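hi! just following up on the protien thing from before. the input was this:
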Amino acid sequence: MQQQDRLFRFAAFIKATLDASGQPLAIVARSGLDLSRFGLRYSHGGISLRESPNAPWSVRQLYYDCEQGQPRLFDQGVPGFLLGAEDPGTGWFSAVLLPTPAAEALATQALDKARALQALHPRYSANAHAWALQYQNCNQWLVETLALAWGPPPAPDAAPRAAAQAWLREAGYQPQVLRVNNRPLMWLASAMPWLHEDDHPAEDLAAAQYRVSMPAAIEAFVRQREPAALRLEFCHNGVHMLLRRGWQPIAEGCVAEPGDELISF
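and the predicted 3d structure came back as:
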């Protein structure tokens, strides 16, 4: 019960901060699966929308429906989004606020259901190759949605995902390289129904690595494309909540530094 109360207070802190920004949306990510072996803090990204039809600042995201065995677009309130963290005793959340033209273009794309569905693919793979079309993961939907918002409209006879990936290549997007460094482990993982290898180049598989869209890669791309973008990072550790403004990440353990905003539980 105490952990649930802290999570709701953490979510309220995030929403109040986003509200005070005056922005229509934020590109957001949360901690989830433990990806520390890859040097990654965040596993799952989406778009937090002030004018969400679900509730203010709900996160529009790709969600894999395990029961139905297919991906869907899903609007989830901030508390529910945070519940995906593997360790309920700690939590991490990042939000990137965009300059007005980029934010408005993305809001137009994301809030229109038909346009938001343009980038959705019916086959899910958690390790989907960033430059392939066979599968898609949640972060791949996110970055392709950015491309459809910020790039030219796809030609009438063009597949939206293919057009989005072509624009991302031209714009300099670099997906995350996940170095597994263990080929037998990759063989075992590929037996799971939500992991696949047939979309990855042979040279990457031989090197025991995947090229996948992850929140860190998407944030790096947004920062390179929109230098005026502002990053907010939030964390809690059971003792306090913390907010940092800027691109310098918070240290492990949710440790405050001068200039951070700290609120005790």
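The chain has a mean pLDDT of 92.
The radius of gyration is 18 Å.
cheers
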